[in-house]
Amino acid sequence: MLDRAFAKIPALSVEKQDFKIPVVDSIIQGNKTQIRNMAQIADIARRNAADIGKYLTKELAAPIGTEGQVLVIGAKVNPNVLAEKIKKYFEMYVICKECHKPDTHVQGIERGYMTIVCEACGAKYTVKNYL
Fold first, then answer.
1. pTM
2. Helical pair 49-60 and 38-45, crossing angle rounded to 10 deg
3. d(CA 42, CA 65)
4. Which end of the chain has the smaller Cβ count within 10 Å, N or C?
5. Residue from 78, 47, 46, 48 nearest 62 by CA
6. Residue 106 pairs with which residues in a beta bridge?
7. Parallel, antiparallel or unpaired: strands 70-73 and 32-35
8. Could you read off the pLDDT of 84-109 as tens digits, one per residue?
9. Domains present along the chain, CATH in parentheses
10. Distance CA 50, CA 108 (A)
C-alpha cells in the first residue's frame, strides 16, 4: 500500500533556487577602483546603492563617488577584498538571520541601530547602523 501511495505522489523538483550573492564586476584604473555592476548589486539587495557605498566607505576607509551607474572608490582595492566586503554586507544587512532569505527591508533607524524586518518569516531584529 505504501508503494502505491508513493507512486501517486507527484515528483518533487530536485532543483532548488538558492539565493546567490552577485559577483562584483570591478576594474582598477590608475589609483581608483570602479564597481561597474553596483546598480545590479543594489537591486538584488533591495537597498539604495548610495547606502551600500556608505558601508564600503567605512569598511575600506576610502572615499567613494558615483559616475552614472558606476561606483568609484578612491583607492586601489583588490577584487577579492571587494567581494568579501559585499558578501559581509549581504550577510549582515540583507539576509534574514532566522530563515536565511534575502526578503528583508529596513524599517527604521533609531539610536545608532537599524531595525530590519523579514518579509518571508516576519522576523525583526536590530543591527548596528553603518550610516
1. 0.81
2. 110
3. 15
4. N
5. 78
6. 116
7. antiparallel
8. 999 999 999 999 999 888 999 999 88
9. 20-94 (3.30.30.170), 96-131 (no CATH)
10. 17
